[in-house]
Each structure stands twice: as C-alpha cells, then as structure tokens.
Amino acid sequence: MTTKLYSAELCRIPGVAESDCILVERGRVAAVGTRGDFSGYESPVHYEGAVLLPGMRDAHLHPVAYAAALRGTTLATAADFAEVVARLATAADLAPGPVLGMRLNEETLAERRLPDRLVLDAAVAERPLLAHRYCGHVAIANTAALVLAGIDSMTPDPVGGSIDRDKEGRPTGVLRETAIEIVAERFEGGNAVSTDELLSALRRLAAVGVTSIGAMLRTGAGAWASLGNEVDITINAADRLPIKVAAYVIEESPETVSINKARIDAAGPRLRWRGIKRFGDGSFGGHTAAMHDRFSDVDTSGTMRLSDLDRSIAVESLRLGGASAIHAIGDRACGELIDMYLELIDEGAAPRKLRIEHASVMTAADIDRLGRSGIIAAVQPPFLGSEATWLEQRLGPDRIELTYPFAAMEDAGTVLAGSSDCPVEPPDPWLGMALAQDRAGMSIGQALSAESALAMYTSGAATALEEPEPLAVGSPADFIVVDRDPLAITPDQVAETQVLATYVDGVEVDVNRSQPLWLD
Predict the structure, then answer these.
(1) Of 342, 418, 411, 328, whose CA–CA distance to 375 is shortest?
(2) 288 near 302, Cβ under 8 Å?
(3) Which residues contact 125 (CB under 8 A, 6 or more apart)?
(4) What is the pLDDT along the chain (520 residues), one digit of tens a residue?
(5) Quick one: 213 exposed, middle or buried, by C-beta within 10 A (0-12, 13-18, 19+)?
(6) CB proximity list for 423: less than 8 A, separation 6 or greater
C-alpha cells in the first residue's frame, strides 16, 4: 500500500495535541501532525469542514444476535398485548418452524406486565414460540414451547434460573435466566443467522464509525440457541470481515476453551480470540440482578449465578493468554466478582486480562477496590436511556446514586470501556457518548466530560480489546471522518453525529447505509 496523507479541519485523538493530518503507511499510522509538518508530501485526501477521529470501539456486543434483530420480529414498540400477539402471528405466517420474538419491554406496554403463555397462544398455538425480553434475561414461552421442552408443574427450577408459576403451581410461560435455555435449546438453529446477514450487520456498524467490536459469541447452546452456533457463523465470515472482531466465547466448560481458541485464531486476520464470557447474575429489568438488599418494587434480591465453574473457565482462559469477561450488574454480583478477580490477581493474573461486564451498581467500597485493582469495566451508557423512567423505582433513592457510577469509577482509576450490549441497546457510539454526558437526567453527578466520553469509546475500549493505543504512531490506521467535533458541542448534538467515512487498516470500508441501524 502506498503512503497516503489524510487531512481535515482537525484531528481529535485522546492524549494527543491538536492536529489536522494523519499519515498512513502500509495500513499503520506513520505520523500525526499539522499540514506544515507534511509539506513535502503529495496533496492529502482532504475532508473539508470535517473532523478525523480514532475509530469507535464497542467493547461488548452480540453481533449474531444483532444481525438477527435486523431481520427479526421486534416487539419493542408494541403498545399492548394485542399488538404483541399481532406481530408474533405475522412472524408465524412469514416463516415455518419455531417463532422468535425479540426486545419485548413490559414497561412500555399498556398492561405494564409481562404476557404469559396464554397470551402468546393467541398468536400461535400449534408451533413453539419464545418471546425474549429486551434485556435477554427473561423470555416467555407459549404452551407448545413448554410442552416441547417438557416443562410442567413438576419441573424444578434450574440452577441459576427460575420458572414463574401461577397459584396452582403451573408454569406461566415466564422463564428467567438459565430457565430460558431449557426451551431455547430445543429451538437450536431454528432461526439461524447466515454469514451474509452477519457481514451486512457489521458493515452497518462501520457506517456509524465502529471499527472494532468485542464480540460475545455462543457455541449453539444457551438462551439464543435458535440463532445457530455463533462461533461457527463468525468463523465462516472471517475472511470477509469489514471491521475487527475480538471474540469472547460463552464457554460451558474449561475443556472447550482451547478448542475454540485454536479455531478462531486460525480463521482470519480480523478475527482474534480474546477470551471467555460468563454470567454472574441477571438484569435490573428482569429483577434478576443479584443485590445485597431486595429490590424496592418486588420482594426479591435477584439471582446469583457466579460459581466455581466460572472461576475454572476463567483460569483456563488466563492460562491460554486470554481474558475473562464476566457479567455482573447487581451490587452483590459485582462485589463477589471483584473478590474472585482479586484472588486471581494474587495468583498471578494480569489485572488488564480481567473484565467486569456492566458494573451497573456498586457500593462505594467496591468502586474503590475496582479502581485500585486495575480490572477493566466494560460499561453501557445506552442503558441509561432505556431505564431512566423506571430504574429508581426498582432500586430506591439510596442505590440510584451509585448506579452506572461512571464518574466515581473514573475518579477511582478504573479504565472504562464503552459499549452497547447490542441487541439490548442500539449499537450507536454517538448515542452512548451523549448519554455518558447527560445521563438522561439521572444521577447527573456521575456524568462524564466530553473528553472522557470520547476516550471511553476509543482508548478505553481499545485497552479492553487489547488493541494498541488508537492512532498512536505504529498503530493500525483505524480512523473515521465525522461532520462535527464531539468535544465542542452539546450531548444532543453528539447523538446526531454523521460519519462520512470509515477506515480500517488504512482502507476505506464499504459500509452498509441501505439498512437501518436499528429496528424498533
């Protein structure tokens, strides 16, 4: 590749003095500076009135589920049970096999509660149906799906999950955490995502400036078994990936970690194995986040899933040079995961190989421990936009001040890696940066500055993904061209940022702008 010079009104690179040019040689950054520094070079590729930025990173995203969401049946904007039924009935008419609904949110339904199996039976009675809550930690099965999975009044709750029951002890169809898997694994591959669908979704991410993702990938098991083996689907796409994909495999045993590492590492230059993903608890919306004290609106303290198995899988990943990325949302789950990670650090683990996914509510003491430990927090500012209207009712006024405590974690020294957890939230880094600053008006004392919000999605996420410092000399030339300076505008204006071009390894990506970024 020939040497090329790119220029705009200015470059914004965290930690770098103001500049307006990037010199690229063989896909890497050769220099960053001002036009006067490059007077001997040919005329640059110039973007008039634009700004050059490092590529956006999304440190925690489910790419196969995102691809499914772009062509699936979304229930997010359904007004009531009748509309949920109508959308699911339409989905059943369009394709044979099991019926899958996504992004159900009872907080926006007129009934303000989850539907049960009898409601879903009105959509389709003769075929199995599973409707997932948007958080992914709760799903509702119709009667046919419960029968297919053998769930009845005598079925015990699985470890790490629960089956809701009526007053007579009969399953209502509402499944929480690992209970979803009992049904979902009977759907295995029934709604499989194709390689082309995945690639189209990744090109759509590139259109909003995303150049790297931390991809959470299942092996065909679990709550999203119907989408197929996500590791296989991603490997099949490896030689055509438009952006960089760091794979974190949702492993079920230590024995399979090395097998998946070898397969992924051999697949292609833009697909890299980075470690494992596991679950320590559930979600706020599903009342399954593991809390020290009970939720304020329901008499439960959530579901604790962290176990010795998580530790043994994490140890195997670390032995192979990988990372451990474990989901923890509630304050109890966060505290116990920090305990486990500190033990691993004492045994020789590198703190930067340990990630806490979400870190949504913590005690002040745990925020301090996290900051001093060097453990990375992969956080999701978009959660604020979805939860602002009901979260204080769930947690109460005392806990809300340390919920999504971005400023407190930053002050304590924690590296914050920005992400979306898509398809839980839209994979839009500009929305994430805006919400990190204005927090949808919730606990505004935990807001970040514009500079910190940008760093979260660039250098912070790059650290989590084990990438070189963005746009440092010698780093890959992963950069974007945008229509505004995110450090000089309001959060609302940041959310409206338009990406004019996306470059990965110095080559402009053929992005997908024909498809919506998000379907509600």
Answers:
(1) 342
(2) yes
(3) 142, 143, 144
(4) 579 999 999 999 877 777 999 999 999 999 999 988 898 888 899 999 999 999 999 999 999 999 999 987 889 899 999 999 999 999 999 888 889 999 999 999 999 999 999 999 999 999 999 999 999 999 999 999 999 999 999 999 999 999 999 999 999 999 999 999 999 999 877 889 999 999 999 999 999 999 999 999 999 888 888 899 999 999 999 999 999 999 999 999 999 999 999 999 999 999 999 999 999 999 999 999 999 999 999 999 999 999 999 999 999 999 999 999 999 999 999 999 999 999 999 999 999 999 999 999 999 999 999 999 999 999 999 999 999 999 999 999 999 999 999 999 999 999 999 999 999 999 999 999 999 999 999 999 999 999 999 999 999 999 999 999 999 999 999 999 999 999 999 999 999 999 999 999 999 999 999 999 998 7
(5) buried
(6) 62, 65, 66, 68, 69, 102, 103, 134
Q: At what angle do helices 308-319 and 331-346 cross, to 10 degrees?
A: 40
Q: How many CA atoms lie within 13 A of 365 on its CB side?
A: 5
Q: How far apart are CA 120 and CA 508, in angstroms?
A: 46
State the first-to-last Cα distance of the chain, in angstroms, to the nearest integer. 42
This prediction's pTM = 0.94
The DSSP symbol for 403 reads: B
Question: Maximum CA pair distance of the chain?
Answer: 82
How many Cα atoms are found within 13 Å in the side-chain-facing hemisphere of 3? 10
308-312, Cβ contacts within 8 angstroms, sequence gap of 24 or more: 309/253, 310/278, 310/280, 310/340, 311/340, 311/344, 312/254
Strand ranges of the sheet holding 56-61, from the earlier edge strand across to the other edge: 56-61, 210-217, 244-250, 271-279, 323-328, 354-358, 376-379, 416-418
∠ at Cα 110 (108, 115), nearest 5°?
A: 85
Q: How far apart are CA 124 and CA 143, in angstroms?
A: 10
- DSSP code for 294: -
Distances (CA, A) of 137 to 120, 132, 295, 411, 452: 18, 8, 16, 31, 30
- Are 288 and 308 in contact by the 8 Å Cβ rule? The answer is no
- C-alpha span between 206 and 480 (Å, rounded): 9
Q: Residue 55's closest CA among 83, 81, 29?
A: 29
Say which amino acid occupies 48.
Answer: E
CB-based contact 51:79 (threshold 8 Å): no
DSSP state of 140: E
Query: Cis peptide before 351, with omega less than 30 degrees from 0?
Result: no
Interstrand relation of 271-279 and 354-358 (parallel, antiparallel or unpaired)? unpaired
List the domains of the chain with CATH numbers.
Answer: 1-55+470-511 (2.30.40.10), 73-187 (3.10.310.70)
Using CA atoms, how far apart are residues 426 and 134, in angstroms rounded to an integer?
11
